[in-house]
Structures are given as C-alpha cells and as structure tokens.
Specification:
The protein is of the alpha/beta class. It has two domains: 56 residues, DNA polymerase, domain 1, CATH 1.10.150; 300 residues, TIM Barrel (Alpha-Beta Barrel). The protein contains twelve helices and eleven strands. Strand 7, helix 6 and strand 8 form a beta-alpha-beta unit. Helix 5 runs parallel beside helix 6. It is globular. The protein binds iron/sulfur cluster (SF4). Iron/sulfur cluster binds next to helix 4. The site of iron/sulfur cluster (SF4) has 10 residues, from helix 4.
Length: 427
Amino acid sequence: MTEQPPVRTTTPRQVRPAGAPADTGIRQVRPKTEGWQQAKDETGRPLLQFASPKRGKPPVHLADLTHDERVAKLKELGLPGFRAKQLEKHYFTHYTSDAADMTDLPASGREELVAGMLPPLLTEVRRLETDRGDTIKFLWKLHDGALVESVLMRYPGRITLCVSSQAGCGMNCPFCATGQAGLTRNMSAGEIIEQIVRANALIAAGGLGGKKRDDHSLDRVSNIVFMGMGEPLANYARVMQAVRVMVDKEHGLGMSARGITVSTVGLVPAIKKLADEDIPVTFALSLHAPDDHLRDELIPVNSRWKVDEALDAARAYFDKTGRRVSIEYALIKDMNDHAWRADLLAEKLNARGRGWVHVNPIPLNPTPGSIWTASEVPVQNEFVRRLNDAGIPTTLRDTRGKEIDGACGQLVATEEDEAAAAVTPVG
Ligand code: SF4
C-alpha cells in the first residue's frame, strides 16, 4: 500500500541562488505544515537501494537471450537452430506464447518446447480504462507475486506504452508513490518485453479504443517510455537487453530506437555507458529542480551526483549520439515551480550550448493526501513561457492516465490491487 509521507518537523530554508533573476511577484512559498522526512542510511545520507533484493529469479525466456543463445539452447535440447526463428516469429510478430497457435512446430514435444522457451511471465490482475478506452492501465503479477504496472496510450499517429523496469523503486523520491514503497526487485528483460507483447496482442484484437477512421497509425505499440515503476538505469543490463530486443528488426520487435525513451533521475556513470551503446534511443533526464539545494531533497540520488554533473552527462549524451535530450520537470506547487527556477534552468541549459535539449514540464500527479501537488495553471504557463523566451524549446506534457493513477510517479500497487492479486493464480 502507498504510505503517506510522515509530517516534516523542520522546514528547509528557501534559498534563491545569488544572481538569480527576480520572480514574477506571484506568491510562492514552500508548504510549512506538512511534509516528509527523508529515510537516511547509517551514514546519514538519503537511503538509496541500488542492489536488487535477493528473490527467486523469473524463468529464462526467449527475450532474455540473444538470437545465438536461443539457437544454442535449442541445440542443447536436440532441436535444429531454425526453430528459434519460428518461435521469434510467433512471439514478436504474432504476439502469442500459446503452443496451440504454433502448428508449424512438430506436434510431438511442442508443448514442452514452448513452455521452456516462452514461459508465462506476467499474469494480468486488473485492467483499468479511461479517456474513452484509449488509455489502459494493466496491473501484472510476476512469478513471485510482485506487482508491476504498464500504461498503454493511443495518441494521434502513435501508440505509447509506459513500461516498468523494476518492481518498486529504490530511489526514494518523496513525491513519487512508487518510491515510497521501496525496491522489491529488478525485472528481467523478458518481463519488460512481455509488457509490450501483451499490449500488442490487445491492440491486434481491437482492445484499444480511440482509433479515428482517418488514423493510419500502425496497430501496435510504436513508442516506449521507461517511466513506469523503477529507475531503468539501476537495472542497466536487463533494460539494455530489452532495448536490443525492441529494436532488433530480424529477431525482435523491430521498433525504431528513436521511439524508445530511456529516462533516469541522474545515475551519471550509467548515462555515460548508455551514450556508448550504439543504440540511439531518446534519453530523458528527470531533473525536477535546477539547484542542488532543492534537488538534494526532491531527488535523493542528487546526494551522489549533483545537478551540474547530471546536466554535463546529458549534454555528453547529445554530443555522442546527436539525439536531442529531454529534461523532465514535474511541476510541484510552491516547491519547484518558481519563476526564478525556470530562469536558472534556462541559464544552466544555455550554458551548455544551444539546440541540444528540450524541456517537458509536467504538472505533478498528486499522491492522495500529500502536499506534493500540481502547480496552478498560471504558474505552469509562466514557467513554460520563461524557458521558451530564453530559447529553450519547452512543451507542457499532458497527464494522460491521471484518472487511473497511471501517470508517472503514480504507479504503485494499492490495497485493492493487492487484494485482487491475492486471488489471481500465477500463470
Ligand atoms: S520518481 Fe522515478 S526514480 Fe524516483 S522513486 Fe519514483 S520511480 Fe523511482
């Protein structure tokens, strides 16, 4: 269940950096009466969980393996290597893991083969629809009972799936429902890919609404955002295996790398590693504050890597890949939405050159009962205007999925979800 943050006992000083431009005159103060206390480790630093707690691993799935490893595994089973290609086609093109659909495989041993290569990974517990059926949130149970979610959204000309990469999250961001629950475990590449395959199966069966008659978008997921549960770069190897499967045209889903957005709260060494991969995914840095004073609190990982280090790594990503970087900025009322912070953000981005970055402010989706709530519309507009005026392309993102708690920072299993999961058998 989502725990409410405990009441803050002290209020940090509101500090405006020297030289920061004057604000708009709109009264903006930090809430004083409610708040939270950051969980700390024994050395007094904000508690962060980088290592996945030890739990039983999910069964190895076709999507966890490279094509060569799939062939090798089949050969070990005494089967010809070309069966790998047949299984890939069934799974990545026809979105099925059902042996009964695979009549091109020999009947004898088919069930065992499919059970071994395509074991069930996600059991659907609940499905919630909103926006007239063109936004769907799935709640999945993993083999060990851990719960994760994904959100499917149809937009004009594209279909986006917001995927989870970890069950829970160890980054402890105080405004985020997922962060309040801690890290349960890393997800496997197979579990990440299965979210897409299951969404594609639903779309193919006509289960996603919102399609207009003149909408010629492909009838499958075209865009992936790693903005569900988890910090993707804290689960680097499995997330990258999943990305390789997504973009593999011959042996995977054949998606465009540009349509895949990998986001992070700022794990700088992993950003550098990502830049060295030869996969031009879109990179998004969830910044949420341009000054360390505030970001140390909002994004505890800032205690390891500061704003300037994260921005330098983001700029280096652009230099290496030529891909424009996105800066995500959840606008939180009276917390980080001050006009001078917009100016400071613009200043820091412009200091690193022009044309390399785009800012996406998004009104925060409040955790119920919390002080972490969305900025007011005039404040949002002023924030966006200042960035645009400073020459930083800035677009206010919509908060699709809000009604079903499916927007970023809201993916967390509720008591009701847990109850539904308890009566859902795995498999
Ligand atoms: S905002 Fe992202 S990184 Fe922070 S706790 Fe939530 S899911 Fe984790």
